[in-house]
Amino acid sequence: MFRSLHMKLVLILLLLITSLMTIVGAFLMTSITSFYIDEFYQQMESVFGGSNPSNASFVSSLRSWAAEENVSQIQEMVEARSGDLGLNSTTRTYYILDGRTGEYLAGSDAEGAASLQATANLLTARASIARGGSEVGSASDINAPYMDVAIPITGGEGAYILYIYDNRDTISSLNSQLFLIIVQALLVGLLISVLLSFLLSKTMVIPIERLTEGAERVAAGDFSGAIDVDSTDEIGVLTTTFNDMAEVLQDTLEAVENERNKLDTLFLHMTDGVVAFARDGSILHSNPAASQMLDREIAFYDYDALFGEQFPLERVLALQRPDFLSGELTAAERILELYLAPFSDGEDGGVMAVLHDVTAQRKNEEMRKEFVANVSHELRTPLTNVRSYAETIRTMEDIPRETENGFLDIIISETDRMTRIVQDLLTLSRLDSGRAEIKMTRFPFREAIDAVCRAVDLDAQNHSHTLVRAYGRHLPMIVGDRNRLEQVMMNVIGNAIKYTPDGGTITVDAGMKGENVWMEVADTGIGIPSKDRERIFDRFYRVDKARSRESGGTGLGLSIAREIVQRHGGTIGLVRHEGPGTTVRVVLPIRQAVNREELDDA
Ligand code: ADP
């Protein structure tokens, strides 16, 4: 109950008022008591004190009456000054006692005389009389329930004590009245403090409560609406600061959220696989690329199942940043490079795994090596031939002219072969690097095919082939590099002639389909085994090496053809069909996306 600020305020105010009133009351009551005591002794002094000349005659008169042992006269004189002494019958009484025995002789309260006590002042006066002196007993004691003064009156043989006794009833009644007033004031004070506390709670507690509500809202992540500020006091400043803080916090959270979204997007779409593991090996995060690379739903696995065999988790965790472990693994015919590194050393740390797919890279390297080996091999054979025939001519004496010419013919044909290989390689390398210039022009597709057919006609006739032109008249104009496209056609028709035993039929057909034109060259030749069909467009790939070489082939023709067709945005491939022979189909887009400048309409 006393935990709420409101109740604490009430309690503090109540305590404050009570303690204040108690202190003030006690102070007032003590002051009144001492004032009365002082007043009493001053009164006595003013009557019996030696400083006043009128007192001196009064005291000496008393003494002379004492010398005559006339008590009644003494009493009379005292009674005469009763006003000055403040005597009355109830609170302040006087007694005339025998100075030596203390026996009551006369006074204003004969009844009370019986119960008179031997107070300190009385004893002082009596002791003084016994010594023959006249010392007044006038010591005051604030704690005593009375005030008294004992005045020795001596003269000749007579020795008396005038004893004035005040029972402090006046003070007591005054004090009790004061006490009553204080209690009433206290009650009023308490009432005011309760009212004040309500007022205070309105100005202090309510804003604090509002602030608390706001803080709870912010803690729950709700930043909508600032807290109202009604005052400019400390609470007002605190509320304004809190509003500012909430705003900054919201901005910061938004920035963090943005960063996280950015990272999430990056994480989601990056081509490298990323997996984060906790220290116990369980998976914290992984991206789709990682699952794809490892060919399994990673979320169902842990570190040990994925990489534990190759790199124990403890080994990775023991690494110091920025050290990392790297290795290679194969998963689902993919070659993956794996990098493992610990992140943050504390309890929240773990291991980050990054997977990089190097399959294509490795394949390219393989292909490059194979290509270099092929090139070397292709060049070595004619070189060896050239060298051995040249050597033979040089070492053989009396070599017949005919044989020598035959050998020289071989040397020339082998050099031609090498030149063709080198030329083809150059063309390929230019196409590969994009350096080969493609001169786009608009030309009639049909004319190009006609030109190629005319060029190969003689060759076909030499092999007793029938060259059938199955295409009609209505072929469109196309945009492309005419020379290079004719080179492609030449290669495809040339192959058909080469790889068809003499007396075969070669059919050239063409047409238009949608946005494309197509050309098909079908022969009745040796055909291509299905295992080789995919590969004949690879560099140096030949189904029958001896046959290819015999007919002057380099094994690069179709690779070059494919490069050219692809540069035109078209395709080249084999048509699957029943029966012997081969059909090659080339598809080209009619219109190229080319710049006007590149277009040579002439
Ligand atoms: P080549 O210079 O050896 O002819 P190509 O790249 O033009 O090289 O052809 C690759 C290989 O594809 C040839 O060696 C041959 O084995 C095969 N080939 C191409 N066209 C035909 C065809 N019409 N009939 C049978 N085999 C073919």
- For the termini, the CA-CA separation is 102 Å
Poorly predicted segments:
594-602
**Main sheet record:** 5 strands, antiparallel
Fraction of residues in helices? Answer: 40-55%
- What is the strand content? 15-25%
Q: What form results from the Cα inertia axes?
A: rod-shaped
Bound molecules: adenosine-5'-diphosphate
Radius of gyration: 66 Å
Helix-strand category: alpha+beta
Oligomer: single chain
What is the β-strand count? Answer: 16
The main sheet orders its strands as 6-5-9-8-7
Task: Characterize the structure shown.
A hairpin with a 6-residue loop joins strand 8 (334-343) and strand 9. 53% of the residues lie in helices and 17% in strands. The chain is rod-shaped, with a radius of gyration of 66 Å. The chain has helices spanning 5-48, 53-67, 71-80, 82-85, 110-113, 120-130, 169-219, 234-269, 288-294, 303-308, 313-317, 359-395, 401-433, 445-462, 482-498, 530-533, 545-550, 557-567, and strands at residues 92-98, 104-107, 147-155, 158-166, 273-278, 283-286, 325-331, 334-343, 350-357, 441-444, 466-469, 477-480, 505-513, 516-523, 571-574, 583-589. With 602 residues, it is an alpha+beta fold. The chain has a five-stranded antiparallel beta sheet. A five-stranded mixed beta sheet has the order 11-13-14-16-15. Strands 2-1-4-3 form a four-stranded antiparallel beta sheet, sandwiched between helices. The chain contains 18 helices and 16 strands. Bound molecules: adenosine-5'-diphosphate. Adenosine-5'-diphosphate binds at residues 491, 495-496, 499, 523, 525-528, 536, 542-544, 548, 553-559, 582.
